[in-house]
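In this section we walk through a basic example: taking a raw amino acid sequence and producing a predicted 3D structure, encoded as discrete structure tokens. The instruction is simple. Fold the sequence below.
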Amino acid sequence: MDTMIDIEQIHLSEPFTEIFPVDNKTLQSIRSNIEQNGYDEAEPLIVWKRNGKLLCVDGHTRLMAAQSLGIEEIPVIEKDFQNEDDAVSYAIHRQRDRRNLTDAELWKCIQWMDKRQPRSEDGRFKPAAQDCAPVERSSQQTAQALGISARKVEQARTVMDHGDETTKQAIEKGGMSINKAYQQTQRERVDIGNKNKKPESQIQRKEEIIDAECQRSFDAFYREIQRSRLANWETTSKESCLKMLKLLNDLITIA
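The resulting token sequence is shown next.
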């Protein structure tokens, strides 16, 4: 059951305001509606009492619109949550069920949820254990919570891990979709890989040069050995021995 409460007692707080920032266009639209028709008591705020303060969990835009109009009391429903994670998860579900989340909002939700996801030693996400149910990929669990595809979660994670800051900022500001950012990031990764990769013809040419040098060194070493053997090694000079050692060293180095 909702109750009327002094609007000054309700506080905006992170991470709720960070995950769902207030859009100015929507704020002005709701403010205009309240100004004309009054506050709709069928839309109470959801608040959570934490450390003696009432925090707004859901309804930030309505709260700010009412504050700007000087409304003194506002209907609320106070709910209990075990911790901040539960409160944020509830807020995400409320937003998801009410409307389609924008890619900018999904981006922030995925970031927030991933911070709480356990990871293995290699940095990969570990799916949360589920009683009496087959283990799903972590992307599937996140996707289910947000009402989107696992593919979209994976695309967002790729941009988070490999995208540049300009691309990430574009998503946050609503100027680029997650899919477009993913495609751009993948193209850039391929371009970087191609720059670092030597052309096949160059690699093949280098191998041919090494093979030729190796063969020349071997032939020279073999000729010097044969010359000394035919002379029964008796006439082999110190210089010849050093020459054979050098040829042998060159052969080992090239090979």
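Looking at the output, two observations stand out. The mean pLDDT is 81. Residues 200-230 form the longest helix (31 residues). In the next section we compare this with other chains.
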